[in-house]
Amino acid sequence: METSIYTVVAFYGLALTILGAATLVVFARNIVHSVLFLALTFIAMAGLFLTLDADFIAAVQVLVYAGAVCIMVVFGIMLIQRADMKATNLFNRQLFTGGGVVALVVALCAVFAGRTAWAEMVAAEAVPEGTVQFIGALLMSKYVIPFEVAALLLLVALIGAIVLARDEEVKADAGD
Amino acid sequence: MLAISLTHYVVLSALLFSIGLFGVLTKRNAVAVLICIELMLNAVNINLVAFSKYVTPTDFIGQIFSIFVITVAAAEVGVGLAIIIAIYRNRLSVNLDDFDWLKW
After folding, report:
1. How many structural domains are present in chain B?
2. Quick one: pLDDT at residue B7?
């Protein structure tokens, strides 16, 4: 499959941005900086989805992840952290154990990827232009039950988050 | 070798998943563990969309699955942050090493 030079440059640029920002998410000592690099990772990932002909997923990525999730995490941090944000995001004592487990996972991935015949499974067709109408039709026909279950899940998560984060004293006042 | 293939995306996704897993295993702050789980879910999304493009380009299975993954991830962040806030109110800490009520 022939790719243009722009796609190649875009892929490597976005891949380096994603990996660098993700590494900084893990290694930043200030949790607020971590969340900022997380937003950068999400936006670069939206660009990567554009190189994969998934324009609707790219839009959803920017809206849901870079918009909603990052803001929600920042709000959560502001509610629970102390005023001094330095050294709020440190490593625990399992640094080398964790590194060993991750090395094992990478080795397993490499072994299984080496045993997979990637060239055989690639299809010849290209993705059709404009994916939104296909995704919308499929979500309302073939995948309508998962779609409704996802809606129910969001409702339950909304109610559950309110119930969990609610202050006990407020509840006692409301009960009077 | 100046062409982007499925393997490139799979390698990128595996590396991102490893970074997220390393963060989940080694971070002390509960919020940091939550955002590292987000990194892992995003690595899965890259895989799903890449396989959707290269293996089943006309079925959109991977793209629809990644929409569901994004939905579940958003719900997970909401409930996870609410749980962390509720625990913080009791313990005045978000250090995961302090959360040992179930250990004896």
Report:
1. 1
2. 87
Number of H helices, E strands in chain B: 3, 0
| Residue located via tokens 């070798």 | B1
Which among B86, B83, B76 has a CA at the least distance from the CA of A170? B86
The tens-digit pLDDT sequence of chain B (104 residues) is 567 888 889 999 999 999 999 999 998 888 999 999 999 999 999 999 999 988 888 888 899 999 999 999 999 999 999 999 888 888 888 888 777 777 76
- Closest residue by Cα to residue A37 from B95, B16, B6, B46: B16
CATH class in words for A5-142: mainly alpha
pLDDT band at A172 (very low <50, low <70, confident <90, very high): low
Q: What is the CATH number of the domain that holds B54?
A: 1.10.287.3510
Answer whether B58 sits within 8 Å of A128, measured CB to CB: yes
Tokens of A122: 């690639």
B49 to chain A, any CB pair closer than 8 A? The answer is yes
Tell me chain A's radius of gyration from C-alpha atoms.
21
Q: What are the residue ranges spanned by the domains of chain A?
A: 5-142
| ipTM confidence | 0.90
User: Looking at beta carbons, which residues of chain B come within 8 Å of A38?
Assistant: 35, 38-39
Note whether B41 contacts A: Cβ–Cβ < 8 A.
no
Nearest residue in chain B measured CA to CA from A53 = B53
Asked if B85 lies within 8 A of A167 by C-beta distance, the reply is no
Residue A31, both tokens: 């949790």
